[in-house]
Amino acid sequence: MAVTEQIIEVVERGRKLGLTNAELDQMLCAIGCVRVVHQKDGLIAYYYDQKGQERFLICALR
Fold first, then answer.
1. CB 36 within 8 Å of CB 28
2. Which distant-in-sequence residues (6+ apart) come within 8 Å of 21 by Cβ?
3. How far apart are the first and last CA of the chain?
4. H helices within the chain, ranges in order?
5. Domain that holds residue 56
C-alpha cells in the first residue's frame, strides 16, 4: 500500500475513533510521516518518497 493511501486510512480511522491530534500524530509518524501540521479544517502530512524527496498530502476533515 502506498504511503498516501496509508495516510488517508489512518486519518479516516483516527477521526472515526475520536483520537486526539497527538494520538493521530503518533500513528502518522509510525507509518513514515516526518511532520504533521494541523489546521482548522484539515491537516498536512509530510513524508519522504522513495527517491528521498519531501512530499505532502493535504487531508480535509469532514
1. yes
2. 38
3. 24
4. 3-17, 21-30
5. 3-60
